[in-house]
């Protein structure tokens, strides 16, 4: 356990505020914003409610909730969210979480496949909280999940290291156009922590290959990645999915900058492609036409964070005003604000 804590300390030192001991923690999300978020999306059982998706809960949402509770320096809320996660989602025998919990059906879990990004977010948050709050049970749970991710979802294919979206359904053995990946599942900031929890050179290669793949995923007139990409031969939008830059993909630039990947050319290409008159949008990759304009401040903050990183542009006042609406954009807004407050306070 001491070895894990030492490894995590090394992996998380870059996340600590300047001048603060790495094992200390200060809130990166203010108390008012976190109170508003949890009043809207966190119920008494500890589940994060996706109110834009039938009020279901999922491993991604639980992972985000844990990470935000950590960033808000709220151990009690963290424990509440973790209780639901471990009792209702950690039902598989391999250490990974089932991806979906539906309050409208019984049993609440009807699909036991995992979602690798949700698993990584959960393990990442547990590692951060376990290190900051000296909770060895959190570190142990994080290590088990990271080891399972490495064994079950991090794979080599045609010279590349890939993150399978789930253990079932996406590999070359499962689909004619497999392997199929989702580029928004690479949580770049979490990967060094996964390497501390489950040591392997594959984690570093996973991050490098994820960025390299993004540079090749330039589909349609807007040169954007698809939500689901076949890597059977030349990368292309996967069969059976809409060829679109959709809601999940909106977070890719945020994940890049939060992970310390400030490739200005790539960030600008993504930002220009995913914007229509300065407003983010989902995009039909075949035609390049916007499908849905996304004006919520939680979506707009992706633009604002990238502009800060690329050229030092200050965030607009509207980005600093947090009033939760839907689970997903509200989550992105808090992640964006926490990052800017910690790494680029000059943009506030």
Automatic annotation (TrEMBL):
GO terms for molecular function: cellulase activity. It catalyses: Endohydrolysis of (1->4)-beta-D-glucosidic linkages in cellulose, lichenin and cereal beta-D-glucans. Residues 1-24 form the signal peptide. GO terms for biological process: cellulose catabolic process. This is cellulase. It is an enzyme of class 3 (hydrolase). Pfam families: Glyco_hydro_8 (PF01270). It comes from Rhizobium pisi. The keyword Hydrolase applies. The lineage of its organism: Bacteria, Pseudomonadati, Pseudomonadota, Alphaproteobacteria, Hyphomicrobiales. Its EC number is 3.2.1.4.
């Amino acid at each position: 356990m001491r070895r894990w804590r030492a490894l995590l300390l090394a992996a998380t030192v870059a996340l600590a505020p300047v001048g603060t001991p790495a094992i200390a923690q200060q809130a990166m999300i203010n108390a008012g914003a976190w109170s508003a978020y949890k009043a809207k999306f966190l119920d008494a059982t500890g589940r994060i409610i996706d109110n834009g998706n039938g009020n279901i809960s999922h491993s991604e949402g639980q992972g985000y909730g844990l990470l935000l509770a950590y960033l808000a320096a709220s151990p009690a809320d963290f424990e509440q969210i973790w209780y639901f996660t471990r009792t209702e989602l950690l039902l598989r025998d391999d250490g990974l979480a089932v991806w979906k919990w539906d309050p409208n059906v019984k049993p609440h879990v009807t699909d036991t496949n995992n979602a690798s990004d949700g698993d990584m977010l959960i393990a990442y948050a547990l590692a951060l909280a376990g290190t900051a709050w000296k909770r060895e049970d959190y570190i142990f749970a994080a290590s088990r999940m990271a080891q399972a991710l490495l064994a079950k979802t991090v794979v080599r294919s045609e010279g590349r290291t890939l993150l399978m979206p789930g253990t079932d359904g996406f590999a070359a053995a499962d689909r004619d156009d497999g392997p199929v990946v989702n580029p928004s599942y690479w949580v770049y900031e979490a990967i060094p922590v996964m390497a501390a929890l489950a040591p392997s050179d594959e984690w570093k290669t996973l991050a490098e290959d994820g960025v390299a793949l993004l540079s090749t995923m330039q589909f349609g007139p807007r040169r954007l990645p698809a939500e689901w990409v076949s890597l059977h031969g030349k990368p292309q939008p996967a069969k059976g999915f809409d060829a679109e830059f959709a809601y999940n993909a909106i977070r890719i630039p945020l994940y890049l900058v939060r992970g310390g990947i400030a490739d200005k050319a790539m960030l600008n290409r993504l930002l220009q492609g995913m914007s229509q008159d300065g407003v983010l949008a989902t995009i039909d990759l075949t035609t390049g036409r916007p499908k849905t304009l996304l004006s919520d401040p939680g979506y707009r903050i992706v633009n604002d964070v990238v502009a800060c990183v690329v050229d030092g542009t200050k965030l607009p006042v509207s980005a600093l005003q947090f009033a939760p609406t839907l689970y997903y954009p509200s989550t992105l807004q808090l992640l964006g604000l926490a990052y800017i407050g910690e790494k680029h306070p000059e943009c506030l």
